[in-house]
Amino acid sequence: MLRWVRQQLGFDPPHQSDTRTIYIANRFPQHGHYIPQKFADNRIISSKYTVWNFVPKNLFEQFRRIANFYFLIIFLVQLMIDTPTSPITSGLPLFFVITVTAIKQGYEDWLRHKADNEVNGAPVYVVRSGGLVKTRSKNIRVGDIVRVAKDETFPVDLVLLSSDRVDGSCHVTTASLDGETNLKTHVAVPETAVLQSVANLDKLVAVIECQQPEADLYRFVGRITISQQMEEIVRPLGPESLLLRGARLKNTKEIFGVAVYTGMETKMALNYKSKSQKRSAVEKSMNSFLIIYLIILLFEAILSTILKYAWQAEEKWDEPWYNGKTEHERNSSKILRFISDFLAFLVLYNFIIPISLYVTVEMQKFLGSFFIGWDLDLYHEETNQRAQVNTSDLNEELGQVEYVFTDKTGTLTENEMQFRECSINGIKYQEVNGKLTPEGFSEDSPDGNRHTLMKEEELFLKAVCLCHTVQISADQTDGADGPWHANGIASPLEYYASSPDEKALVEAASRVGVVFMGTSGDSMEVKSLGKPERYKLLHVLEFDPNRRRMSVIVESPSGEKLLFTKGAESSILPRSKSGEIDKTRIHVDEFALKGLRTLCVAYRRFTPEEYQEIGKRLHEARTALQQREEKLADVFNFIERDLELLGATGVEDKLQEKVQETIEALRLAGIKVWVLTGDKHETAVSVSLSCGHFHRTMNILELVQHKSDSTCAEQLRQLAKRIKEDHVIQHGLVVDGTSLSLALREHEKLFMEVCKNCSAVLCCRMAPLQKAKVVRLLKTSPEKPITLAIGDGANDVSMIQEAHVGIGIMGKEGRQAVRNSDYAIARFKFLSKLLFVHGHFYYIRIATLVQYFFYKNVCFITPQFLYQFFCLFSQQTLYDSVYLTLYNICFTSLPVLIYSLFEQHVHPHVLQSKPVLYRDISKNAHLGYKPFLYWTILGFLHAFVFFYGSYLLMGEDTSLLGNGQILKPNRQMMFGNWTFGTLVFTVMVITVTMKMALETHFWTWINHFVTWGSIVFYFIFSLFYGGIIWPFLHTQDMYFVFVQLLSSGSAWFAIILIVVACLFLDVVKKVLYRHLQPTSTEKAQMYSNRVALSDEFIALQPLSRARNQLSKIRWKKIRVQSAQHVTLLKASREGRTIGNC
């Protein structure tokens, strides 16, 4: 019983075997000892809450925040003991913050529930009781036979049983899973492929044994045992048999498959695990400031409590004649009274902690993130893609980046491959007008103008046409004879490939005379100079990153068994025993120096005995349930040896537009750029030089091809010594994957020292996990720099998730990087606008927002503390409870929120054209302890002026009347506790609002509306509250107080004088600093202020509004009168907003 309880609570999960056994159509054994395994149902649950757990779970998550929990404690204290303020003063703001956050999170979760219900309620067809039964997706069970029609999405992970094709094959696209748009071929085992009707499938008796669910999309290990005529046939099952949930059936009428993984155990669901929460540096600073203010609060409460008892040590103050104690109060414990008074003072001063800060920051981040998507400068017209924000929590982190880690292929380059050169049998060739021409021969020379192919050339091109995973669009017919010509006119066939390299090579081969015509069952058809040849595909040895090659075994038309293999030169050349190995190696290095991507091609002939041995080994490895990958790797290595080298290919990947300018701008901004790529050393260095990552004048240091710790350590020491000796010269470092592994194993500190002294670092031959390890290494170094990783492929996901900020490029290698990133952009060049403009603005806005919040709460609560010195620390409140409640919610909330959304302290174009301005905000410069101390001291200073200014100007030369009225000479007016407090509060609201106005550089009509509107609203509300609705209130403390206060000319004089006195010193300080010690940002502000705009300027507006206004604007030149004489172009009808942020 105890074990069962522990299992239900999750402390002792039940034992689960490494494999699962699935009886097709749920035909379980009839003997009584069999206990069916329990599997998950097919419901997809992406929601976080249910109707029953929303309230407790959401409240628990919200009260984990320090500020929320603190205000809950204060609220409970107010309920339990007699405190000077009403519980409403703490309860109402807390309720507002909790409610707003809960509504936002509840709405987001409702949308998830809605999406889940659509998916789980989708209609599907299942084979049951000898017929097709229509049911809902959520009702599918493991073992059910499911029918899927053309263009439908697979509702579960299925093992393919049969299709409408005789060979049991089908085509699918996995674009929604990994972004690959090419058609993938999946095949059923021969024994089930013939079962194409529901009746035949209903008679199938078979058992599938496979691994338990795992997230790897490309790994599946299983076997199917089919009972036929009293014998059992065992067939291996691999990834080619598994149809994944979320993939879509293409070019196939229908298929039947058996459900093996359902619901949250499907590979799609396992890949959508929630990412680890990233926290920005600003949020960490905010929590530090909160703790400091908690200490200030405790200090004020303890000091007030001590001074109260020190004051009451005198008997006349302990129990004055007008406030006698009860018998219970005289006999109560002094310790309990001290604690009670301490808690009362804690309640009185609790507003120094800004509860509304969190909700304002959340609103600022959420609303501010829309400006990135609306920015037309980040919109790519060719692909119709705009910038995408996946998380708004890291907006300000874009302004703090110190290291950028970037992939090369598809990020710095276009990932559009073009065949340039090849080496065949030791001779270099180029493609000239659709013909292979040996190097040094022109098109007009005798050898350069031939229409036939030599034997070696033809074999090389056939290897290229047969060793790949390219598919042909099924919409195209086989009748390609007509338009095809051997003289270089391109074939009309349209190829699809997951690898752009393969597509480029197959297209190049078709242009020069050897055309891949497609596959039919297990046959591959090739046309060589118009002559069709059919090869039987026997085995495919799939590519994997460890082997870095792929192979096919085919049977030629003559019956010969051939192995064709292609891959990186480091994996092909060592396994070659014949061919022009040395010449090809030289050619490969030459290709790499030109920045070309290289592949080597080789082949091997098998004798019948060798092929029989290979077939036997492959079958044993592929049917193994345990350690299948290791066994297959051993067999592949056994097959791919004693190769005969055919040649090598060189494919060009063009650089993206403005990559060089972007990298140079990042360098000027003080950001170090590291390129992490899987390409070979020479190719990576060549691309780094061409894109400006490495300068021609830079001293290139190398840490490559090390096999032992000792040689790696010695090389690192020599590099460190060389850097110290040549400290004036800029250095660049090149590291390869193997050397990096050695360096990180035992020499991490030495390696980091070398890297930090280099202006640029290039890591080549990198595995995906190595990329993430390098990012983690920098991220956790003692300096704790802010890192950004940018990439476009699935191999960049780990790096993107590891960095503080992850950016996905919407490229041609799928959407996995985009889905797992924090932000997504279409091109690398957009990174400069994202960091230098958006990042800069977001950081300045939120840094000012956070510190302003603390400032205005210091201004708010310090007069309350000072007032206790004038009321014998009796815990009398200075402000009315309604003012206490609405100060942060209504009177001072909107100006700072609008500031944090629209502020542009420097012209956006100036920020982008002067990357050096980015240095001014690096290392959290505006949220350090120096600016924090300035804002805090300013808050205390202003609070002293509010209180003592009001006291001196309005409290002198008065006489106190018995009824609490104060008689001023020549006039009577109400001037008591509430009048004085209201005067202080009025001065405070105006001053803090005007302080926000002084901080604002970019004024829009919205800024004017909320700034002056907040002050007007306060006056209107106070008149309404004290003069109209007072009869409906339970207390009449504020009866006509505000009206009487404003009817006094001296009160108006005091308000104006105090506000001017507070802000005058601040203005003088700003003016002196800007003229005597201006920062580079302040200089840029003076430049940008000279921008002459002759028409309406559009910035930071919703896209629809911006477009409406853009349609009215013509081309206009705007001159910036700066030292650089920058010329800006204002937007046209088709143009962009120049101030869009």
TrEMBL record:
Domain P-type ATPase C-terminal, which positions?
818-1079
- Which residues are responsible for catalysis? D407
Annotated signal sequence is: none
The answer to whether UniProt assigns keyword Ribosomal protein to this entry is no
Superkingdom of the source? Eukaryota
Positions that bind ATP: D407, K408, T409, E502, F543, K566, R597, T677, G678, D679, R765, K771, N795, D796
- Give every P-type ATPase A domain span: 123-186
Pfam families this protein is in?
Cation_ATPase, E1-E2_ATPase, PhoLip_ATPase_C, PhoLip_ATPase_N
Q: Where in the cell is it found?
A: Early endosome; Endoplasmic reticulum; Golgi apparatus, trans-Golgi network; Membrane
Q: What EC identifiers does the entry list? A: 7.6.2.1
Q: Where does Mg(2+) bind?
A: D407, T409, D792, D796
Its cellular-component GO annotations read: early endosome; endoplasmic reticulum; Golgi apparatus; recycling endosome membrane
Recorded catalytic reaction(s): these are: a 1,2-diacyl-sn-glycero-3-phospho-L-serine(out) + ATP + H2O = a 1,2-diacyl-sn-glycero-3-phospho-L-serine(in) + ADP + phosphate + H(+); ATP + H2O + phospholipidSide 1 = ADP + phosphate + phospholipidSide 2; a 1,2-diacyl-sn-glycero-3-phosphoethanolamine(out) + ATP + H2O = a 1,2-diacyl-sn-glycero-3-phosphoethanolamine(in) + ADP + phosphate + H(+)
Enzyme's top EC category: translocase
Please list the residue ranges annotated as the P-type ATPase N-terminal domain. 33-90
Q: Name one GO biological process term.
A: phospholipid transport
Q: Name one GO molecular function term.
A: ATPase-coupled intramembrane lipid transporter activity
State the annotated membrane topology for this chain. Multi-pass membrane protein
Its biological purpose is as follows: Catalytic component of a P4-ATPase flippase complex which catalyzes the hydrolysis of ATP coupled to the transport of aminophospholipids, phosphatidylserines (PS) and phosphatidylethanolamines (PE), from the outer to the inner leaflet of intracellular membranes. May contribute to the maintenance of membrane lipid asymmetry in endosome compartment.
User: How does the annotation summarize its subunit structure?
Assistant: Component of a P4-ATPase flippase complex which consists of a catalytic alpha subunit ATP11B and an accessory beta subunit TMEM30A.
Name of the molecule in the record: Phospholipid-transporting ATPase
Q: Which organism is it from?
A: Gallus gallus
Gene that this polypeptide is encoded by: ATP11B
